[in-house]
Amino acid sequence: MPDRVLVPFDGSPLAERALEHAVETFPDATVTALYVIDPIDSLLAVEASGLSVADSWYDDERERAAGLLATASDLAAGYDAEIETVTATGQPVREIVDYAEDHDVDQIVVGSHSRNRVGRAILGSVAETVVRRARVPVTVVR
Fold first, then answer.
1. Cα gap 131→14, rounded to integer Å
2. Domains in the chain and their CATH numbers?
3. Minimal CA–CA distance to 19: which of 28, 11, 7, 29?
4. pTM confidence score
């Protein structure tokens, strides 16, 4: 059984399902929920909204991350589990894989997708790329 489990968490229903799977399947492991602030996605959202970059998009994203990770903690508490929460900034696949390597993660549990169909077609699936690049087992939850 894994000692350290990483769950990339973006607040989507499949990320919630992945977290539930992790705390149920690995009750004795240290589970970490990781939210990655993607500067590219964030800047595209800022541009689409008409705000300038100076309108503190990063502070907004950190606040959003804190809220989502609080949701993850609450979800885990419903299973009598405590989790660690971490926020990183960068390209999501790279941050997930690097975190797993740098923190001796034994297993990654990820939702199968979270973006809409157009986003997946253009940017590819984070889950699919994590499966290909991770050096540890990856469970993909649907």
1. 16
2. 4-141 (3.40.50.620)
3. 7
4. 0.88
